[in-house]
UniProtKB/TrEMBL annotation:
Domain Transposase IS801/IS1294, residue spans: 12-120
Protein name: Putative transposase
MF terms in GO: DNA binding; transposase activity
InterPro entries referenced in this protein's UniProt entry, alphabetically: Transposase_32 (IPR007069)
BP GO terms, sorted: DNA transposition
Annotated PANTHER family: ISSOD25 TRANSPOSASE TNPA_ISSOD25, TRANSPOSASE
Amino acid sequence: MFKAIFMEGLEKDCSLSWTGSKNSVLKAIRFKKWNVYAKAPFGSPDRVVEYLGRYTHKIAITRHRILEVNATHIKFRYKDYADGSKTKQMWLTHQEFLRRFEQHILPKRFVKIRHFGYLRLQGKTERLALIRSALNMQPAKPKVIIPFQIRMFEKYGRDIHKCP
């Protein structure tokens, strides 16, 4: 149902710029298998977008942390976790500031996913155990560490300890 409604809207929308003929693009999309998962949002769709946006579109530094910019340097506020999470200020040259900022730009097609709330790393195992207990679920099975030699044998059928 969603696919049909979406395709109908796409066919009517003439503001899109098409690479190739519009009909060939629509035909290719129409024959793709779609997997649509939707459930009722909490609050409103706008609240969902706002919530997800806080976690998926964070940038390295926000405007309110930049305190001063002059012809050669940038002064900004940061939190020094090595010094008891104290807020400090730092001056950097434009070049050094951009170099550090660029380190936060992800490579093409790289997806950044961060876990917050009960899925954050610190104490995650304990929280998940508590949630399982509250929901009367079985405890998680312990992870079994399988040596890579066995995994290689299972996947490729060859013993890596023997010469070919």
